[in-house]
Amino acid sequence: STYILTLVNCEISNNTIVNSWSGISFAFNIGGSCKISNNIITNCSHNGIYKAPGSTVTLTNIYNDILNNSINYNGTLAGIGSISTDPLFADIIAKDFHLKSQYGRWNGISWINDLITSQCIAAGDPTSVNTLSPWGGIIEIGAYGNTPEASNYQLITCPTPICNINITQ
Description:
Elements: E1 10-13, E2 16-18, E3 24-26, E4 33-37, E5 40-42, E6 47-51, E7 58-62, E8 65-67, E9 71-74, E10 89-91, E11 96-99, E12 105-106, E13 111-112
Parallel strand pairs: 1-4, 2-5, 3-6, 4-7, 5-8, 6-9
Antiparallel strand pairs: 10-11, 12-13
């Protein structure tokens, strides 16, 4: 059987894809549009973001960190705000994909401070909703964007992953 998927107002956001065969692929899609934002896609053995020849889906790639894939962008281009830098995961071997931060990162028990800060923190799409993060402000790129476990980009003390602090930049 052959299936044809038409995308209309699709949004793929705040994902972390690491050491996969491929990142986000549009191989058999026709028509429609898709916004791809606030994702980290790294170390995939094929493509980071792939749009197959002949696919007429309109892709908007913005504010992603696409790095060290066999081909980072295949059939599409990096968009505004996109970066290609080491996301500085807490512990990739232990599959802890929280982003390192000098100002605070959730380690599963408490907030700890790292010696370095990921460039993915407060680097997401400024129009994205960021209400769940205790830090407020601009959303973080990756799976923890807009969650209570988003890493901190300013010096603030928060005793739990959920606290009522709202900071705007």
